[in-house]
Amino acid sequence: MDILQLIVSGLANGCVYGLIALGFVLIYKATEAVNFAQGDFMMLGAFITLGFTNEHYLGLPFWLSVCLAIAIMGMLGYLLDLIVLRRMFGQSQVAVVILTIALGFVIRFIAGAIWGHEPQSLESPIAGVELRFGGLALGMDEIWVIIITVLLTLLLYFFFARTKLGVAMQASSQNQLAAYYMGIPVKRIHSMIWALSGIVATIAGILFASKGSIDPTAGLLGIKAFAAAVIGGFGSLPGALLGGLIVGLVEPFAARYMPAGYSQIFPYLILIIMLIVRPHGILSQIQTKKV
User: Between 137 and 3, whose confidence is greater?
Assistant: First the structure.
């Protein structure tokens, strides 16, 4: 029962890591940029939902708050690319990375100024509810994290495989110049991908806040999600989720059976081993070319 409990908890945490890692991969596939503020997008989306939902703030119905937060973060991602990142066109990728790191600091400062720096709990209808099967206690928050992640993954798969916009996004990520010549509005597509990344991060933040408390430093979870994306394969959407599940499963077992503090190191040890053994990740999409 202990092992099964650890597996369920690890899967739930891994799903959150995987969703954040999914945002990393979406932006990288489209623009070849790495958004190190992705974890802070997750944190900000959670706080916006908390601000709309909790009684001592606005006290709106939970599901209405979720929809509003998703819409706001999607618009924020779109405007960020439209107003800021397009002006970085032609600059090195290092400049974009530095910009997103600075953006993360700004987001953490704004969240702390508005909601404070103390941990707060999201008043979610799934928080604190448990289902018991014999000696096994499953939290509804963990169950819903897994269910929503599976549904969102399937939705994104069908979106990229079956819709014109999804196909256009894939074409833009594979060859921007060819996509432009075929009439695809590449710049607008990039803004839409940043919006989609903000939406996915918000969903991850809501699920994370439903499992426990949230504070501005929770944005640093993006570093662990970045490691998960690299482990799974940085250019692969399924790889991002797989890497998140691996990190999520390793942590509770390390915390249970290893000395204190080792659970925080194991994801990065796996990252180092993966970079040595298989640098492009488990589900690598990088192919060698013969010239």
Answer: 3
